[in-house]
Design goal:
globular, Uracil-DNA Glycosylase, subunit E, six-stranded mixed β-sheet
Amino acid sequence: MSESTAKNASHLLAWYEAMGVDEAIGETPVDRFAAPAAPSSSESSAEERKRAPAASPDARVRPPKAARTSPPAASAAAPSLEEIETLADLEKAVAAFDGCALKRTAKNTCFARGNDKAKVMLIGEAPGRDEDLQGKPFVGRAGRLLDKMLATIGLDENAVYITNTIYWRPPGNRTPTAQEIGACMPFLTRQIELLEPQVIVLLGGAAAKSVLDTTDGIMRLRGKWKLYNAKGRDIPTLATLHPAYLLRTPDAKRLAWRDLLMLKARLEELAQ
């Protein structure tokens, strides 16, 4: 193998890893660039019959019904969740849930980390590669930065409870779809109800939009206290920038620092 070929192969493997392909399936390699074999006459006829209805000029292509409405699995899960009375039992229910397709490609379920008696709940978007491997949210680079940020206002893992809007890593760390978030939302709602936090902190625009049910961007939402209603109880909720964004945009740390000071002041107020 030439040096250039080896270099290209190395780049391809790195791309596969970034896209979430981290294991080989099958003992025989498959050449994805090879020309497809010509179908037999019987196969061609069968394929033409399958395509025949779609040839009508009046045909309209519409997304599947499941893509236009909330996922049935999510709706079915909500009523039974009322019977769950502990976070430990809720975690078991999430682990047994098969209504989110992300579970089939993830290695682990990332339910939460921190203290299940904490009064501060932090909610991010989705697990990444490190989180998927360890089965805990915010344990990679962004998680380490988050821990340092919390430490500046006197908080550590024993004082907070951290989770995400979805519990499984999207392949390649892509943005979760509305259907995937919707499938997990009943569990997250019950998670908030069971934890009964004094304060919720939403990390990043995706989490803020999902939990606050808004289309506003994170720059409009951050630095302002909102109220999240959990079974008749209003919980002060603060949106801030995601640690992963701060790693890419260090200048924005000054904004996150202001949000942290707001959080610290609110906690001191609640402690009085």
